[in-house]
Write a structure and sequence with these properties.
Length: 499
């Protein structure tokens, strides 16, 4: 693999077939697809890979049981097939996850309708869902979930989706791209783009080397997610909505399956995640800062209220919250209607010759979005390319060492691996995107100190850089619970760190 400077120089050396803006799941998917077809492709990311929405999702590979209720059969079929594809190409990032969906009298979620729905759901995966759906009577449900609010229960359906790790899916997709010759650089922004004869020219700014370079490309793929409407050639019109998740300890809610909780027409999830549980999510219009959306106290209260209504004896409070994250859904604009009703379909549009916007969609459908986008670019630029094999080729060429659904143990070897093989440059790159240690461990600030010491040794940071990294990390990770930089202190229940 080329080092960072060599990669950036190589991007500028001769015209690219494709320049991809944005190293989220969509840009990474395009970079993988294009590289595997033999195209000269580069992807640049203004911050860390996956630092946008693609590390802030519910981490589900799903057809979307909710969209089925809305009659969006085509969308559900497409996503259902893709969830099965991802389970084949990246089994380490797609475990079958059963969902129990309790139904109650007086709500719009009727048992008989859901029983038909989940059968259809299995069929829409081409009959090969990750597990077979079933249903339960109230007595069975009560035995299985004794803590569940029993008021008006009419039964439950049980169906299967997949659990993934969003940021790891981005990183492993990028590793696959790099293996096929894709050129990748994080902390490089696209500052300006303009037509350049038959091609496009982009001015890039390298935040590490603090220099500008110009690259030319036959086509530009705008995969900038929530930022996609910021370029002059873009015709993307977005309606951003914020979704928040909370992490609590597994001991606080005794569930084996993921549980669906309803609040009117909305659904929220209790998602088992190793020794933790993820609760979420919200869906509210957003017009704040795009770079680091955070969970407000009202978001946290809302999720806790819905959870405590479903599991009254659990009495979960803000003290139980280990961590939170908030993400922005880059939905295609529809000024009318509730946020949760806006379509999750994707759009691929060439707005000017050689400028392709790819927007909307979801994590689950990223591979298909990438295939369709690269097809479009190949046809426009008359590129000679091999056929797409992203649906059958495994993402990794060896068993995963430090990639999976739950975080790896904290170790120096893992940190070295992320620096040498996965483009980690800053403390947050390791603590958040590469590992999720920040979300999984209550004592993440102590872990961050140890990780920073290892990064100092490996990357040769001076004392000032070391301090800056810790300061930046604690600023970025302080949240609505008021965690502060000053919390670099010793706490109980410390995570085991192997050196
Ligand atoms: C709360 C929530 C829950 C979700 N849950 C699920 C789920 O369970 N399953 C599912 O399938 N989907 C889910 N989604 C949807 C899914 O997460 C998103 O559709 C997907 O991550 C969007 O990826 P993206 O690549 O388009 O955007 P991003 O991941 O945001 O990537 C865009 C990137 O472009 C970069 N960028 C912007 N401007 C520039 C520039 N000038 N130069 C260089 N780089 C630039 C940004 O820094 C960013 O990293 C969820 C979304 C949210 C918000």
């Amino acid at each position: 693999m080329l080092n960072r400077d060599e990669t950036i120089e190589a991007m500028a050396r001769s015209p690219l077939d494709l320049l991809v803006i944005g190293g989220g799941i969509v840009g990474s998917g395009v970079a993988r697809d294009a590289a595997m077809r033999g195209l000269r492709v580069a992807v640049v990311e203004k911050s860390d890979f996956a630092s946008g929405t693609s590390s802030r999702s519910s981490r589900l590979l799903h057809g979307g049981i909710r969209y089925l209720a809305q009659g969006r059969i085509g969308l559900v079929r497409e996503a259902s097939r893709e969830k099965v594809v991802i389970s084949k190409i990246a089994p380490h990032l797609a475990i079958p996850l059963p969902f129990t969906f309790p139904t109650r009298e007086g709500t719009e979620w009727k048992l008989w309708k859901l029983r038909i729905g989940v059968k259809l759901y299995d069929l829409l995966c081409g009959g090969r869902n990750l597990g077979k759906s079933s249903w339960m009577k109230p007595a069975e449900l009560e035995q299985k979930l004794p803590g569940l609010n029993q008021n008006g229960l009419t039964g439950a359906v049980r169906y299967f989706d997949g659990m993934t790790n969003d940021a790891r899916l981005v990183l492993d997709t990028l590793r696959s791209s790099a293996r096929s010759g894709g050129m990748l650089a994080n902390f490089v922004s696209v500052e300006e783009t303009k037509p350049f004869g038959e091609m496009w020219q982009a001015t890039l700014y390298d935040h590490v080397g603090e220099k500008r370079i110009n690259v030319t490309a036959k086509a530009i793929i705008n995969a900038a997610g929530a930022w996609a409407d910021k370029f002059p050639a873009s015709r993307v019109r977005l309606r951003l909505t914020k979704g928040v998740h909370l992490v609590i300890d597994r001991s606080r809610l005794h569930v084996d399956d993921a549980i669906v909780m309803t609040e009117g027409s909305r659904i929220l999830f209790v998602i088992p995640w190793g020794e933790r549980i993820i609760l979420g999510t919200t869906d509210t219009d957003y017009d704040g800062n795009l770079d680091n959306p955070t969970a407000d106290a009202s978001d946290i209260d809302y999720i806790l209220d819905v959870t405590n209504q479903s599991f009254p004896s659990a009495r979960i409070t803000t003290d139980d919250v280990i961590s939170t994250w908030a993400g922005l859904r880059p939905l295609i604009a529809d000024p009318n209607g509730k946020p949760s009703d806006i379509s999750r379909a994707h759009e691929i549009r060439m707005t000017e010759p050689g400028w392709i916007d790819v927007a909307g969609g979801k994590l689950t459908t990223y591979r298909l979005m990438a295939e369709q986008t690269v097809d479009r670019a190949i046809t426009f630029a008359k590129l000679s390319a091999r056929k797409c094999e992203t649906d059958i080729a495994p993402l990794l060429d060896a068993p995963p060492k430090y990639s999976g659904i739950t975080p790896p143990p904290v170790s120096r070897d893992a940190v070295q691996h992320f620096i040498e093989h996965e483009w980690a440059l800053h403390l947050a790159d390791v603590m958040i995107r590469r590992t999720s240690w920040r979300y999984y461990h209550r004592d993440h600030l102590q872990i961050a100190q140890q990780v920073a010491r290892w990064m100092k040794e490996i990357l040769g940071w001076d004392d000032e850089t070391f301090r800056d990294e810790l300061d930046t990390y604690s600023r970025q990770t302080s949240n609505a619970r008021g965690e502060e930089a000053s919390e670099f202190r010793t706490a109980g229940n410390e995570t085991k760190v192997s050196t």
